[in-house]
Amino acid sequence: MSRLSFRTRLFLALLTATVLPVTIVTGAGVYVLQNLPSVQVAKAVSDLERTFITLNRELALDSLREGSLLALDRHRTTVGYIVEKTPLAIDIKESVPQVFGAVMLIAAVVMVLTVMFVGRTLSAQLSAPLDEVVEWTGRIQRHEALDSATPDHRGIPEFAELRSALRNLAHGLDQARDAELEAERLRAFGEVARRVAHEMKNPLTPIRLAVSQLSRDATPETREVLDVIAVESARLEAMAREFAELGRLPEGIAAPVDLRELIDDLLRSTVPDSMLRHFSADEEIPEISGHYDPLRRAFSNIIRNAVDACHGEGSLGVRLRSSEGWVGIAISDSGPGVPEAQREMIFRPYYTDKRDGTGLGLAIVRQTIEQHGGTISVEETPGGGATFHIRLPTRPAEDV
Fold it and tell me: Alpha helix (H) ranges present in 36-65?
């Protein structure tokens, strides 16, 4: 046997809670009225008893004297009244339960119809959102997207709050799941990259030493070939260093880092004089708690990418802002920008559009920022170019 739906069970519960008390009260009222003596009959009988006692007393003192005659007359009047009123009282006594029962029946029918209407409406208003919540819970469990449209369940604002909470929960779970998958992927990439870096470094050192020795007595033609080998081996060595950085956690204890000083120094040492530099910061920029070397490499990577995108020309600007426990850094350039479809892909390992790029630079940048409890994103610069937005907490990442 299939289980009744929540809506049906709720409706039956409301109906039973109303019909049962009404039935009990109606039955009890009819029973009591049927067993109660008529008020008028009871009063008449009481008067009859009193006049009869008075008559007996008068007869005992002086038979048929004037007082006896008056008492007898009163007794006769009372008896006549009883005779006259008794049929009416009996009719009233018999009709009152019927009238009362009819009134109670009508009231019960009206009440039941009212409860049926209210119960049907209330059960519909309660059951539909509850069914929706059950469905949404199943979707969250199956990692399916929730409906973006909000059904109209009027009169129950709590369900609107519950839907909003479920959406926030689903969004948070999706973010946590994506972050965990990304972290797992980075760990896998990092492990492979470290092994590759180790294998690459072993032959690179003797190759570079051999190139250096051969270059001393090489002919111009040979020297040209050796220069190519030297350049490519240097590129491979840089690639090996990047491989070794991917997936590696910062070492040592976090310490205060002055971002204003760090970025100002990078702008002076990295941006060529052929480019315009703009650097602005709030008056009070708090130090953050982090690891200086990984942060310096991350910001250096972004700034060098901006310089490369502008081909050493145009402009580059940096803004530092402080807000409620966070420091925001915006790095903007006047280069070609990043297409919207690639703004998330550029942070993935091995994704690059450069001929000699490894595709690890921005992946390591995001890894470093996230390891410090921060976030990074990119958008279009007004007027052209790309703007990287970085947010870092002033407190240690585990406290944020």
Answer: 39-61
Who wins on pLDDT, 341 or 333? 333
* pLDDT digits 0-9 by tens, 39-82: 555 566 566 666 666 666 665 555 556 666 676 667 667 766 76
How far apart are the C-alpha atoms of 190 and 368, rounded to whole Å? 13
pTM of structure: 0.52
* Both structure tokens of 243: 């491989």
Q: State the Cα–Cα distance between residues 122 and 303, nearest whole angstrom.
A: 62
State the chain's maximal CA–CA distance in angstroms: 174
Gap between the terminal Cα atoms of the chain: 53
Q: Tell whether the model's pLDDT for residue 152 goes beyond 80.
A: no
Q: How confident is the model at residue 347 (pLDDT cuts 50, 70, 90)?
A: confident
The amino acid sitting at 127 is S
- Which CATH code is given to the segment(s) 255-399? 3.30.565.10
* pLDDT, tens only, 91-149: 666 666 667 667 777 777 777 777 777 767 766 666 677 777 777 787 777 777 776 66
- Which residue ranges make up each domain of the chain? 6-141, 157-245, 255-399
**Which three-class secondary structure state does DSSP give residue 288?**
strand
Q: What is the CA radius of gyration of the chain?
A: 48
Q: Count CA within 13 A, CB hemisphere, residue 66.
A: 0
Q: Which of 94-108, 156-170, 256-270, 375-389 has the lowest mean pLDDT?
A: 94-108
Dump the DSSP string for 306-357: HHHHTTT-SEEEEEEEEETTEEEEEEEE-SS---GGGTTGGGSTT---STT-
Query: Which residue in the block uniquely carries the two structure tokens 């008794």?
Result: 86
In sequence order, the 6+-apart residues with CB closer than 8 A to the CB of 318 are 263, 267, 278, 279, 280, 329, 330, 331, 332
Say which residues have a Cβ less than 8 Å from residue 352's Cβ, sequence separation at least 6.
358, 359
Angstrom distance (rounded) from CA 302 to CA 295: 11
263 or 353, greater pLDDT: 263
CB 396 within 8 A of CB 373: yes
- Non-local (6+) Cβ contacts of 362 within 8 A are 301, 302, 305, 346, 347
